[in-house]
Specification:
Helices cover about 70% and strands about 5% of the residues. A two-stranded antiparallel ribbon has the order 1-2.
């Protein structure tokens, strides 16, 4: 495939964000109870990455901007039905299912981070919510934190399945595109 047949879709900041988020989330998830310091630092990294993505959703390239891909839940559901039937339309940027996944992941990770800060503040008296969160509610915050971390993990699994199915349907590696940034310009 020559350069005229490809288009740069995922810019470097978005690709670095994506892979750092993968690493930070799994580092936090895998260190949960046993290694507090790396768990907390991974959580801070996730927090910073979420802030970056929210900003990049307004100032990034056209494919990174929320205005380019956010759609109604109905559009996402319709796309998923077409995807299950293996006849979904190809998009250069995020498809409607991907748009829904981005929203769900960002919200789930944000709630994971906030509840994690609450646990850290209540349990250790440290972090951005230290002195604000009552230690009597620590158990509640732990349950909320665990729920959203597990929900985010479920979303990651669904995301990976969606990427695999999308790659199969459209005969292009979406993983490679998230590494080098390019996708085929034409549908075939």
């Amino acid at each position: 495939m020559n350069s005229q047949e490809r288009v740069k879709v995922w810019d470097l900041p978005l690709r670095v964000f994506h892979w750092l988020l993968v690493a930070a989330f799994f580092a936090a998830y895998l260190t949960e109870d046993d290694f507090l310091t790396p768990h907390v630092w991974a959580g801070y990294l996730v927090s910073g990455l979420l802030i970056f993505r929210l900003v990049w959703g307004f100032i990034g390239n056209q494919y990174a901007r929320f205005s380019n891909f956010l759609c109604s839940p109905g559009q996402s559901i319709s796309y998923l039905k077409d995807m299950i039937a293996l006849k979904s339309r190809r998009y250069l940027g995020h498809n409607p299912a991907g748009a829904a996944m981005i929203v769900l992941l960002l919200v789930s990770l944000l709630l994971t981070v906030i509840s994690g800060f609450a646990v850290y503040g209540a349990d250790q008296g440290a972090g951005p919510l230290a002195g604000i969160v009552d230690s009597r509610h620590e158990k509640l915050w732990e349950e909320v934190h665990e729920f959203f971390a597990n929900f985010a993990l479920l979303l990651v699994v669904v995301h990976i399945v969606g990427v695999a199915v999308g790659s199969y349907i459209h005969r292009e590696s979406l993983v490679k595109a998230m590494i080098h940034g390019y996708k085929r310009l034409s549908d075939k």
